[in-house]
Design goal:
The protein is of the alpha/beta class and about 350 residues long. Among the domains are: about 110-180, no CATH class; about 255-344, no CATH class. It is about 35% helix and about 20% strand. It is built from 14 helices and 10 strands. Strand 9 and strand 10 form a beta hairpin.
């Protein structure tokens, strides 16, 4: 099978689709599944947000897409389709890095090599992946640094990572990520370590680059405000599962899964005096998941049947809660109040 011509594909056709992705790590007490039956897609030129609490499988899912799961972890099931071509093995997924997929990591300070100038690091991507000569790679690297908003790019080529601010280091990472003109950019919490003003600048930069190139973006974050601002589609992850997915308008206006609604209720609101609601408890240990729905121990709408549901089957749908329709009109705050009242 050969890749489809990008000029003939509709913007509505997914440029990347993930089907049944599972990632496992060996542990002291057995296998830990960090991602379970993950399914989502992103269209050409679209922005997919992946949201959830820390430890829910967001970052490891992105790493799995391009063969970067740290050892001894491994992808044990699932496939990734890019432009109509299916990739399944770890070797095939690793081959996607560069022109197909590229990744911006959470912490640029630990992602950049401290003993090499940034110009050398950007140039290396062009020489290794695209076969540029040393001279051509340098010229292109200067252009890339200018494109991502680094002032005096020719002079900055000789700067080392420690000589740059956090925002400038992240711009260097973005320059390296877009060097091969990827079809999909994977951004793993690219603004987490930055101040609010710099966060806004980096997000605007990513959207501008997307508009110029037509690439799709998958953005991992725990910030629903960022998701609402920049994303078209959303995948909500909990305990390694995608528990809800859909358009941003649908999820913001009418979230179905109790966990999604809990995340929404936990967002501070400027135009109200009421305090954000708290999701009681902590995400489960992936090595000892409870039977049935992993959110059941924290869910304000839990019922006896929740411990008997099959999550792998439910994640085939847009909402992994079989009771979402019956309880869909009950706000999370009310559910918590009812649960507290029942226990009084």
């Amino acid at each position: 099978m050969t890749p489809m011509d990008s000029t003939t594909q509709s913007d509505d056709v997914p440029i990347l689709s993930v089907e049944g992705l599972c990632v496992e790590f060996p542990g002291e007490h057995g296998v830990v599944r960090a991602a379970s039956n993950v399914r989502f897609s992103v269209r050409r030129g679209g922005v997919l947000g992946v949201v959830g609490e820390s430890g829910c499988g967001k970052s490891v899912t992105l790493r799995a897409l391009c063969g970067l799961v740290p050892a001894p972890g491994r992808v044990v099931a699932g496939s990734v389709d890019v432009e109509g071509v299916r990739y399944q093995s770890a070797r095939e997924l690793a081959g996607l890095r560069g022109e197909k997929l590229s990744m911006v990591f959470q912490d640029p300070a630990s992602s950049l090599n401290p003993v090499h100038a940034i110009g050398a690091q950007v140039s290396e991507v062009l020489r290794v992946k695209l076969g540029y000569s040393r001279k051509a790679a340098r010229a292109e690297a200067i252009e890339l640094l200018d494109r991502v908003g680094i002032p005096e790019p020719a002079r900055r080529m000789s700067s080392y990572p420690h000589e740059l601010s956090g925002g400038m280091r992240q711009r260097v990472m973005i320059a390296m990520a877009i060097a091969c003109r990827p079809r999909v950019l994977l951004a793993d919490e690219p603004t987490t370590a930055l101040d609010v003003t710099t966060q806004e600048q980096i997000l605007r930069l990513l959207l501008r680059l997307q508009d110029e190139s037509g690439m799709a973006i998958i953005l991992v974050t725990h910030d629903l405000g960022v998701i609402e601002e920049v994303c078209d589609e959303v995948a909500v992850m909990y305990a390694g599962y995608v528990v809800e997915r859909g358009s941003i308008d649908r999820l913001i206006g009418s979230p179905k899964h109790p966990y999604t609604r809990g995340l929404m209720a936990a967002m501070p609101q400027i135009d109200t005096r009421s305090l954000p609601e708290v999701i009681v408890g902590q995400p489960p240990d992936l090595a000892t998941l409870p039977p049935g729905c992993p959110f059941a121990p924290r869910c304000p709408q839990v019922r006896e049947e929740c411990v008997r549901i099959e999550m792998d089957e439910l994640t085939l749908t847009d909402c992994a809660c079989p009771f979402s329709e019956a309880t869909g009109d009950v706000p999370v705050a009310a559910g918590i109040a009812q649960a507290e009242g029942a226990g009084a």
